[in-house]
Automatic annotation (TrEMBL):
This is Heme chaperone HemW. GO terms for biological process: porphyrin-containing compound biosynthetic process. Belongs to the anaerobic coproporphyrinogen-III oxidase family. HemW subfamily. GO terms for molecular function: 4 iron, 4 sulfur cluster binding; coproporphyrinogen oxidase activity; metal ion binding. GO terms for cellular component: cytoplasm. Probably acts as a heme chaperone, transferring heme to an unknown acceptor. Binds one molecule of heme per monomer, possibly covalently. Binds 1 [4Fe-4S] cluster. The cluster is coordinated with 3 cysteines and an exchangeable S-adenosyl-L-methionine. Keywords: 4Fe-4S, Chaperone, Cytoplasm, Heme, Iron, Iron-sulfur, Metal-binding, S-adenosyl-L-methionine. Residues 24-267 form the Radical SAM core domain.
Length: 407
């Protein structure tokens, strides 16, 4: 289970959103994130809000689709009564946990609830995460037939020893099969990798990158392993059982995957994400990075509408109780002021290939651009054309760039 929820103001039981969130809503897209908080086992590095069967304390996986559908309906009422304009949903993402632990029919039922209560754009991107051992060809066809357009497989590594350290349970030989099944069903495919696992070598990482490329996906995400407080991995490192990931080695790993993917025809569009074309970028993730509106459904899910953020109760049993009572599952919220929204805009925008328009920055930040170019953190040609675009070195030091643009 994840750490404590953030502090904030109490969230109203009726889910009403402040009037300030209505401003500019017509120019923002609407997305839905549906959190499925169930896993067969808990991976030692994970701090997501997930639960194994022994941790549910009365909540039932079999009831979850109806509970999530109830929040989807609640969202429609809250948005309308708060004065937000009706907008068809542009992207939907099922994350977890392992969404595909539920029957495909449950995911379809949750998707149909979004269609019924909000409307879904005809060209919407609809994605689910999946573990390679949690789906078969029939499952993926059922999702595609219902309108899913994309699946993101948690491959993480192709090296059994590395997977064992991460406590991932799938056979890496299964990954090519599930990717082929997804393609045959007409789904776009993303493959997720993790680098910097304790004991992982550069050769191990090269093996994993080459194995991912061999499946010919449309999209690849690669995230450096972060040791989160409270996880089993953090305890193992503290006790000396495993070594802390080496930052220099992680940088070498990033450079390796960027070079390999570029050679294979992929382009980076966010620090940790590469795609074969603009159309295979994750539109849902772009909605986050561009501060669009999204409603997060499920235990511990976070939402954002017009600079207002809120977060749901964490435990599935508490969530089920809120939905049964017909009240908002949110327990806290915050309204970002102008400075916070600008910081977030720069923080997120700087990480993307499309970058930030220099003219949109404060005068102090514009002065900093020359130094960022001189330090090879920002692409000089793009800057002359008016855009902040990170170099490879800048991607490795993205936090430095953001600090200098917001100092």
């Amino acid at each position: 289970m994840a750490g404590p929820l953030p502090l904030g103001d109490p969230a109203p039981p009726d889910g009403m959103i402040p009037a300030s969130a209505v401003d500019g809503a017509d120019s923002r897209s609407l997305a839905f994130y549906l959190h499925v908080p169930f896993c067969r086992v808990r991976c030692g590095y994970c701090d997501f809000n997930t639960y194994t069967a022994t941790e549910l304390r009365g909540a039932k996986q079999s009831d979850y689709a109806d509970e999530a559908a109830a929040e989807v309906a609640f969202a429609a009422r809250a948005l309308q009564q708060s004065g937000l304009p009706h907008r068809e949903v542009e992207t939907i993402f099922f994350g977890g946990g392992t969404p595909t632990l539920l029957p495909a029919s449950d995911l379809v039922r949750m998707l149909e609830a979004v269609r019924a209560h909000h409307g879904v754009s005809p060209d919407a991107e609809i994605t689910t995460e999946a573990n390679p051992d949690s789906v078969d060809a029939g499952y993926l066809r059922q999702l595609a037939d219902a309108g899913f357009t994309r699946v993101s497989f948690g491959m993480q590594s192709a090296v059994p020893r590395v997977l064992a350290t991460l406590e991932r349970t799938h056979d890496p030989a299964r990954v090519p099969m599930v990717v082929e099944w997804a393609k045959a069903a007409g789904l776009q495919v993303s493959v997720d990798l993790i680098y910097g696992t304790p004991g992982e070598t550069l050769d191990d990482w090269e093996t994993s990158v080459d194995a991912a490329l061999a499946t010919q996906p449309d999209h690849i995400s690669a995230y450096s392993l972060i040791v989160e407080q409270g996880t089993k991995l953090a305890r193992q490192i503290k006790s000396g059982f495993v070594a802390l990931p080496d930052e220099d080695l992680q940088a070498d790993m990033y450079e390796l995957i960027d070079e390999r993917l570029a050679s294979a025809g992929f382009s980076w569009y966010e620090v940790s994400n590469w795609s074969t074309s603009r159309s295979s970028r994750s539109r849902h993730n772009l909605a986050y990075w561009q501060s669009q509106d999204w409603w997060g459904v499920g235990p511990g899910a976070h939402s954002h509408v017009g600079g207002v953020r809120w977060w749901n109760v964490k435990h599935p049993a508490a969530y089920a109780g809120r939905m049964a009572d017909g009240v908002s599952p949110a327990v806290g919220r915050e309204t970002l002021d102008g400075d916070a929204r600008e910081l977030e805009r720069v923080l997120l925008g700087a990480r993307t290939r499309d970058g930030i328009q220099i003219k949109s920055l404060a005068s102090e930040a514009r002065v900093a651009v020359a130094g960022l170019i001189a330090d090879d953190l920002v692409n000089a040609k793009a800057a002359l054309a008016g855009t902040i675009e990170l170099t490879l070195r800048g991607r490795l030091l993205a936090d430095v760039v953001v600090r200098r643009l917001t100092a």
